[in-house]
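Dear colleague,

Thank you for sharing your sequence with our group. We've completed the structure prediction you requested, and as agreed, I am returning the results in plain text so they can be pasted directly into your records. Please verify that the sequence below matches your submission; if there's any discrepancy, let me know and we will rerun it promptly.
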Amino acid sequence: MSQDAPRKPRTSESEIGEPWMADRPSPAPRGGGDGWVTGGAVFAGVLMLCNGVLAVLQGIAAIADDDVYARIGTYVYELNLTGWGWIHVILGALVAATGYGVLKGAAWARFAGILLASLSLIAQFLFLPYAPVWSVIMMAIDVFVIWALAAQQEATGRRTA
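Please find the predicted structure tokens below.
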């Protein structure tokens, strides 16, 4: 084609061998869920930060004064409250730091967040007899955090592939 000749509009049924997509801008990536996933990951980071701080406070309460939580009878996974307190303090500090990393967009924080939210879920399950309602709420938050971070990881991998 010469420069002066008008160009015919190109359609998907253009002539064989003619690259009809070459001069078109690439379409915007589809996936209306990407915005939700990104927002969910940010929300998960905020929840991790808050969850970590609350777990530290929960652990301090268990360490400082054993009267905060009710005594239970025999329990299969029984551990004294001071032991549970230290578990919550350490896990809470790690979760809060990882939540900060998720908010900063650190790549390591997504995987670490999934791992720590899973550990937090297990710890809250084992802590059910001491604080049943609070543990169930925290378990639900941990499940959301795991989903949001796993979905964010998947969306990132899809874009680079």
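Summary note from our side: The chain is about 65% helix and 0% strand.

Kind regards,
the structure core
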